[in-house]
Amino acid sequence: MNDDVLIIGAGPAGMAAALALDTAGARVRVVEEQPAAGGQVYRAVQRVQRERPEQLPLYGPDYARGLDISRQFDAAGIEISYTTSVWDISVENGVPSIGLLQGDNATIEKPRHIILATGAMERPTPFPGWTLPGVMTVGAAQTLYKESALLPDSPPVIVGTGPLVYLFVKQMLDAGMKPALILDTGPKSVDMSCWGSLLSALSTDFSALYKGWSWLREINQAGIERITGINALKAHGRSSLQSIEYRHNGKTHQVSTDLLLAHDGVIPNNHLTMAAGCEQQWNKLQHYWQPICDDQGLSSQAGISLAGDCAGIKGAEAAQYSGRVVGWQVAAKLGLVDQLRYQQQTIQERKKLKRIAVIRKFLDQHYHPFDEFQTPKENDTTVCRCEQVSVAELREVAAMGCMGPNQAKAFTRCGMGPCMGRLCGNTVSQLFAKYHDKTVSEIGHYRIRPPVRPLTLKQLSNLDLGE
Ligand SMILES: Cc1cc2nc3c(=O)[nH]c(=O)nc-3n(C[C@H](O)[C@H](O)[C@H](O)COP(=O)(O)OP(=O)(O)OC[C@H]3O[C@@H](n4cnc5c(N)ncnc54)[C@H](O)[C@@H]3O)c2cc1C
Predict the structure, then answer these.
(1) Whole-number average pLDDT of the chain
(2) 406 CA to centre of ligand 1 in angstroms
(3) pTM value > 0.85
(4) pLDDT tens-digit profile of 45-92?
(5) Residues paired with residue 52 on neighbouring β-strands, in sequence order
(6) DSSP per-residue string spanning 410-422
(7) Same fold for the domain at 5-122+267-363 and the one at 135-264?
(8) Spelled out in words, what is the top-level CATH class assigned to the domain 135-264?
(9) What is the C-alpha to C-alpha distance for residues 269 and 162, in angstroms, rounded to an integer?
(10) Ligand 1 shell residues, CB under 6 Å
(11) Residue nearest to atom 30 of ligand 1 (CA)
(12) Cα 128 from Cα 207, distance rounded (Å)
């Protein structure tokens, strides 16, 4: 029998949606490409508690909070397919269909409704040398730390901005390690244009901002050198990173290092929403494509709802509340509960989401994406890592009249490698917009076609088409 609801992603949003639907009596199945529930924020939290409990406090109280929901989720008896990914998603005449891949088994499922809860990914940070071994993202370093308790051998240089940078440095400090230097691409102080949203945020939830401020204070007290207002970042090295270069106050500086961690905030992991044909809009403030959906998570495609950060970045707490709201709303939509029950079950969450939106408004205004990473100036900067396409090649085809990312694929193979444009999509759209002096919305985004993840012929031939 087909599932009522198939949920993609077992982060806080997916888990909360599944628990709500399970309580409402739906036949629900969750698909997750990782081997355990938790998502980015609560990655491996139960394993850390089981195998190295003494380390749990080092990751901070927000991480430990993931134990509750992930245990509740595992205990609920909901059908979960781990290490399973999605290779296709579509909607025909309002009926959703999804291609799943587990090992060599490819299947196509037709649930009554799909909830995408695929979370966030780090915004790419293209600059000359960013593909050298020894340059990685802050999020990747944090993933290694959560998954395997691995920290860098020697103090890294960190470049970028955003809460994840400060959280990770705080986690490093708690583990007894300091970065060598922080090149902070964020503003030195709160800009006057953000004062209104800062005041609203402070009066709505002082503790949320105090948490970030206390991390910064601890970083300053630890005596870590933190330089703001840098530009012209480059990474140098023959076969791996040896040094970085940047400009500050009109002077060029060189720093020897074999590890640079870069971060420029997170963006929705909305590849599947694009593949499913959900309408997107360009978020001008945060420079990302965001699927259009109502406040109950219903996308422009009937049969597909969105929960958590994949619908727009709001953070882990909001992801869990939104998952619950979307779960109950889908249950009501499928006729399993009435609207009154939906209203009653989600009253607290909807209130909390409104409060979080006030804090998010300030964070979004304050932490601008770094201009240099959005539209890299240097011709030799690699944009598409999979197919090794540079800024120069994209400018060349733009000069020939190529108007956007989809045409650029045909000329350069940009966005056609294994990641299927997930990483370079935003950069390519922004480069074309800048070159042709158009808005990013006018330029558009990659059309995502199946298979959305590489699929081997063996896997394809194993495809069970049923009847
Ligand atoms: C690298 C990184 C580290 C972060 N660390 C923190 C942190 O320490 N603290 C914090 O507050 N916030 C952190 N964030 C932000 C955080 O991700 C979110 O606010 C929160 O996790 C969002 O919850 P979610 O349920 O929407 O998505 P997620 O928690 O990201 O969960 C999404 C889940 O979907 C799965 N998934 C995605 N695509 C597919 C697919 N095609 N098939 C199957 N499964 C799929 C993923 O494996 C993941 O488990 C981090 C973000 C990133 C990118």
Answers:
(1) 96
(2) 28
(3) yes
(4) 999 999 999 999 999 999 999 999 999 999 999 999 999 999 999 999
(5) none
(6) HHH-TT-STTTTT
(7) yes
(8) alpha beta
(9) 17
(10) 8-14, 31-34, 39-41, 62, 85-86, 117-122, 139, 142-143, 164, 167, 266, 269, 272, 308-310, 315-316, 319
(11) 119
(12) 39
